[in-house]
């Protein structure tokens, strides 16, 4: 296999193949996140062509965000049973099929099926849980940094390509923009098939940071519902679930889905608004990697306190901004650094409480809370906009929820050692 030859060549330079897995996973999560984020930019084009309301389109986008989260814990289990390469390959093909089929939509129910169900399910199998699985299998040292990098790829993919997609939508139509996304998915699929391996042991390697000859723990045949039942007995799980619900509501559900449309209400063109989102993506890349580095060194609870608190204040400030590219730039920089920096400390707290082997599945359920929040406010904000003509009430609610989440994370009691899943606390 190609991966064997590359691994042997890298070994001669004392470079671990885990970094190749990091690169493949990074690009895969980047492209699937791009596919997930593109519909939010294309909302104005669909409203114009089909005369659908914001509430109707938001319903389909909410379904995609909901499934993106609900599938995550089951995706972690499927990766354990069938392997990363098989699961990710099927997911990429499913997303691309949904996008291709959506080129021919004529009614809202078709948009719900292709953008909502197909893209949502496929993206859910390549969500942050994929990054958590790769990081836990391939890295012992620098795991927090790796999680930060992979998390950044997901958020950056949802934002960085948006100006190009918006520009293509205006110049060549929204269908041409989707063809571009399908091309990126094809490249990701080729990389996965050629380079992805399941575990370091497949190449005769230990995880990065461990000595050669280290015997890896046998994979756990995770049963997502049983793990959820055990985790749900703990206070820690519900605090993480609830605060991640707020995280999803204040990022994917609100900003990613409705920011461009909100800017349009204030006279800022879609391409310019998408450029502000891209700026957020660039700063998110720095902020999330930095969060991974900080998570290796500081109390994750206090990191989350500052992340949620500052995010809440920024959302409460946003309606008072000047809606120009220059006027929104301070918000884009500040909010971008904090966009999804919550993931590394949340995953760290999950692993501390529930153990390394179950962490990816438990985190999948926590991430489900993230997407429930995203789906809920994606739909609710669309309804508020249709009913009142303004998105501002939705932004004020999201900012207030972030402030509540900031104090809630301080109620988590960190264990002195890994606790069993059924432990109280």
Question: Top keywords for this entry?
Answer:
disordered C terminus, 77% helix, Growth Hormone, Chain: A, 425 residues, mainly alpha
Characterization of the model:
With 425 residues, the chain is mainly α. It has a single domain, classed as Growth Hormone, Chain: A (Up-down Bundle). The protein is built from 18 helices and no strands. It has helices at residues 2-12, 18-50, 54-82, 84-102, 108-124, 128-138, 143-159, 162-172, 174-195, 224-231, 235-250, 252-265, 270-295, 300-317, 325-337, 343-354, 356-388, 392-408. It starts with a helix and ends in a 17-residue tail after the last helix. The model is unreliable at 417-425 (pLDDT under 50).
CATH level-1 class = Mainly Alpha
Give the low-confidence spans.
417-425
Give the total of domains: 1
Number of helices: 18
- Mean pLDDT comes to 83
Oligomerization state? single chain
Residues in helix, %:
over 70%
Distance between the termini: 47 Å
Report the sheet-strand fraction.
under 5%
What composes the largest sheet? none
State the gist of this model.
77% of the residues lie in helices and 0% in strands. It has 425 residues and is mostly helical. The N and C termini lie far apart (47 Å).
